[in-house]
Amino acid sequence: MKRQTLILILILIAIGINPDNAKSFQGHGPNLGYAVSSEEIAAWDTSVFPDGEGLPKGEGSAQSGEVLYKSRCIMCHGKNGLGTATGVQLAGAQLDLTSEYPEQTIGSYWPYATTLFDVIRRSMPMTAPGSLSDDEVYALTAYLLFLNNIIDEYEVMDASKLPKVRMPNEGGFINIYKIEETLR
Amino acid sequence: MKKDRKNDLSLKEHEVAGNGLLDRRLFLLRGIQLGVIANIMPTNGFAKTTTDIDLIDPTWMHEPGEPFSIYGQPSAYEDDVVRFPVQNEIVPGNGVSWTPLHLMEGTITPNGLHYERHHNGVPKINPKNHRLLIHGLVKKDLIFSIDDLLRYPMKSKICFIECGGNSNAGWNKQPSQSEAGYFNGLASCSEWTGVPLSVLLAEVGLRKKSKWLVAEGADAFAMQISIPIEKALDDAFLALYQNGERIRPENGYPLRLIVPGWEGVLNVKWLRRLKVTNRPVMARNETSRYTELQPSGKARMFTFPIEAKSLITSPSAHMILKGPSLYQITGLAWSGRGKISKVEISADGGETWAEAALQEPILDRSFTRFRLPWHWNGKPTVLKSRAIDETGYVQPERTELVKKRGRHGFFHYNAITNWHVDSDGFVSHVYDKNENETTDSDININIDSDWD
Question: Which of these, A6, B109, B407, B410, has the minimum number of CB atoms within 10 Å of its CB?
Fold first, then answer.
């Protein structure tokens, strides 16, 4: 074995690089990916973040949302978002999070209003996902926030207003990964 | 009676813990033990009927057998070894199906029995019309076809995947009487093969502030979830194969993200998009669900690794021991933090414990099979198993877990399971005596019924 090779191996061992490890592939793929335009990405990327990144144009209020809710959502989530056997309770929590049978609703539990827009747009209604327009998603989001006494009936939700809505339980979560990270 | 006494005497010297737990090497010892073991093995039902002509000269030895098949199926006599599905009435694709762990041996889950958790059904994906987009805080946004990915360098890893909600009936006030697998079988173990995520992330080129990945599936729920970039670079990979064949549709065909040891929901099926970001997206399944409400009213969030857990699969609920005899206690242990280092078994309700034999190979973040010989004396007792992983973590008793986490965390239930054996040999699930929670009027409220 050449001296340089031996030294290289010793260095690799010393810094903990196992040649069998997946990391040894790093940068050694065949580069088969192809470029994609920003327009294509925009159409594909529907993730909505708490600061509003990803929210589309459009708007809606609880008033129009109520009509939609009654035709598209009520069969699973029940009247006034109280839930049924097939759909979770979304509003109307009577028992708080420390009670014997806590009610985890949007108002009592969800930390971010933007999550509501995101999940309605990508997943709801489960019998016809992707069938709601952005205006309709804003309207349903507004209606559910209204049902949870977080905004009023006439407040219009859009890309600038929704991220500003503060949820009552925003501070109710402990980031376990972060805690463990500081211990590592 | 005379025979039983003789067996008791000869086994006594191999006892390693209370109530008949025997040295884990007993089945391996040669010579002197063989006669003893033969005498006390469960009664062989066939011995009585060897004069039956069908046994000596069965019909299937007198006619040509079935021809070849292009894809083999289990024996028709094994048709009870099936998954157990529970699904939403209006949206039948929203629910789970449990792996029948109590009817299986070894550590690898056959593909048709791997557990399922779908939020809105199994998409029928044509791989020609499926792409993976990697974008966000990267130097080049790139799209990959499945054919492209099949050309990449691959790695294989045997590892378990466990749904964060597995065993959550354990939070109920009444012990679940489902079979072991239909209560704890939202966990399965496969050999997954695919492309290390680090290779693709190197090709797109991570920007400095990249800290998280948002992964999205191509199902009707468009399930998305955030994963720390450290884990993505460490050992996550994009699986194309499961136990040697292309991934089954219900397990993510054509592409599944594997995040070894971390809760199932992160192992995104039907993967179509990875967005590199500097923060989590705070998706529904990392805020409203897959977080654990604690007695304080605060909820644990981003609890990724599966803590060590073990489960006796035999004997277990609904099984019947056929009289005082020698039995092999066996089960599975796993940890999302590494290898299992030890499994201990108690046959006296936790008074004394004995170390079980661990079946090689003992692999990182994989099912590990344990076994221990036990001479049951015919009296009622409680069996327990507890796993210890290489970090030193010890699987908790239920009392301890409930005291710490309350009963409304829904996810990450990993307490010790107790199997009660009554004097007829019937096995059922019990909680410890100090866990008597049955005085409430609302004991029938089951927190595990909610799979939305």
Answer: A6
Q: Flag whether B87 is in a domain.
A: no
pLDDT tens digits for range A14-46: 444 444 444 444 457 899 999 999 999 999 999
C-alpha torsion sign, points A70, A72, A75, A78: negative
The total number of structural domains in chain B stands at: 1
The β-bridge partners of B275 are B135, B214
pLDDT tens per residue, range B276-295: 999 999 999 999 999 999 99
**In 3D, which of B85, B98, B173 has the Cα closest to residue B446?**
B173
The structural domains of chain A, ordered by start, are 48-177 (1.10.760.10)
B161 in any annotated domain = yes
Point out the residue among A32, A118, A122 whose CB comes nearest to the CB of B144.
A32
Q: What is the pTM of this model?
A: 0.90
Q: Which domain holds residue B214?
A: 111-300
Q: Give dist(CA A8, CA B245) in Å, integer.
A: 38
Q: Is B275–A47 a contact, with Cβ atoms under 8 angstroms apart?
A: yes
The pLDDT tens digits of the residues spanning B240-275 come to 999 999 999 999 999 999 999 999 999 999 999 999
Nearest to A22 among B237, B283, B299 (CB): B237
DSSP B121-154: ------GGG-EEEEEESBSS-EEEEHHHHTTS--
